[in-house]
């Protein structure tokens, strides 16, 4: 993580049209790429990247435009106006929220530290960055959970 992201500064972001804004008042606890098919479909991109925070540290403003979609235990939020993906939460990861890296105001300040679900990575897409590569999740879930 860059020096700007390690200063306990306020981390801000939002959707493309500005209807939904958020801020985190503590430093991220996790930044990673995800290659799973679910994230790929939710983002429309060959890989997703997330900045994880403790949920208590994140505040959303103008949330009337935010919409939710989920298949238990996963819930994703997006702007109901412009459609921008915003968050990923997993009921098994209580107290955590993962903001879509592209929704951050300064995404360059949050370099991922690991690739997750490389077992589902598209065969033509590879980032040669030397980061660790995990076959499944990069954030431990309860035993037996995928």
Helices and strands, with pairings:
Layout: E1 11-14, E2 21-24, E3 30-34, H1 37-43, E4 48-54, E5 58-61, E6 66-71, E7 74-79, E8 85-90, E9 96-100, E10 115-116
Parallel strand pairs: 3-10
Antiparallel strand pairs: 1-2, 2-5, 3-4, 4-9, 6-7, 7-8, 8-9
CATH class: Mainly Beta
Give the class from helix and strand content and strand pairing: mainly beta
Number of helices: 1
Overall strand count:
10
How many structural domains in the coordinates?
Answer: 1
In short:
With 146 residues, the chain is mostly beta strands.
Description:
With 146 residues, the protein is mainly beta. The protein is built from one helix and ten strands. The chain has one helix at residues 37-43; strands at 11-14, 21-24, 30-34, 48-54, 58-61, 66-71, 74-79, 85-90, 96-100, 115-116. The strands form two sheets. It has a seven-stranded mixed beta sheet with strand order 6-7-8-9-4-3-10. The protein has a three-stranded antiparallel beta sheet with strand order 1-2-5, with no helix packed on it. The two termini are 27 Å apart.
List key phrases describing it.
146 residues; mainly beta; Metal Binding Protein, Guanine Nucleotide Exchange Factor, Chain A; 7-stranded mixed sheet; 3-stranded antiparallel sheet
